[in-house]
Amino acid sequence: MADHYETLGVDRDATDEELKRAYRKMARRYHPDANPDDSDAEARFKEVSAAYEVLSDPERRSLYDRFGTDDPNAARAADPFGGGLGSIFDAFFGSDSPFGGFGSSPRHHGPPPGEDLETHVDLELSDVVFGAEREVSVRTAVRCESCDGSGAEAGTSPVRCSQCGGSGQVRKVRQSMLGQMVTAGACDRCGGLGEMIEQPCGECDGHGRRLERRTYSVQVPVGVDDGTTLRLSGRGAAGPRGGAHGDLYVHTRVRPHPRFHREGSDLVHELHVPFTQAALGARLEYETLDGTEAIAVPRGTETGAVLRLRGRGVPHVRGRGRGDLLIRLVVDVPDDLSDEQEELVRRLAELRGEEVAEPSEGLLGRIRTAFR
Q1: Is the dihedral of CA 213, 219, 223, 229 positive or negative?
Q2: What is the pTM of this model?
Q3: What is the mean pLDDT of residues 168-188?
């Protein structure tokens, strides 16, 4: 069987335009109308037509480049790996396969997806505990309404790239110790899109998108922590020329609370109580995020004691229920006693048999000194 490239007189990496020019030249030369009663010219014309029919179709040309035929059944029989070595390596390496597309069918890259975007949302601790809905505003690329994202002027459409035949890829064949190797790269004429814009849209200049500020609603799940990233699928930038939207990533920033700080799923508060309440005990009204509750300070409480309010903390992100509210008590000892208060404390120490420092030279001290 004659080689199709030799039949048309072109190199194996010939572009679609080069194939078309060669075919037209050969067809005019061997057309039966130009060579009446010439059976050799008629046979040659059929070979030229068959060669161009195969090489002008990207899929059939790919099969022919790899197996010397465009018959899928023959190609599968010649390929012990079924999908070709390229499909095996593509599964592991993706588009970076060392076989550069060997054994794989042409891929239509199409418009690339839009960029992913990032922003942040400020939250209160109550938002973390009970959940919230917040709005974020981002400047992003949106699909052009005038051309519906195609990039082409209204009433027109993109046309298939003549260089890559709409595949978005240009293949090259080279010889190696393993035989013919086919490498593929993005078409430099259409940028891998497979299409060309002949009449660009006047609103977006052929890009299919334009910049706008958009506001999106973010549902804040309960239990999120400071620095948690929320993903809003499809809320990123619109892709050029009708490409898919990227995603929007929202980073949470939880403002410090004046009373509580978080330790895992627990909330912690350092509560100062006077030594009288710590010594005698007390029942206090305590404000939690859920409302006011009564707490009991036991008699004889020391600094470091912890009161636990179960289920008043932060909801568990992975599971049901909430953490606890831990109230760490700090016993405050006054350092600004009045003379009367100091006398009462000294009387208490005397009754308990506890030694204390001599009184300072305050009013009470001076009076005592005068009567000595």
Answers
A1: negative
A2: 0.60
A3: 77
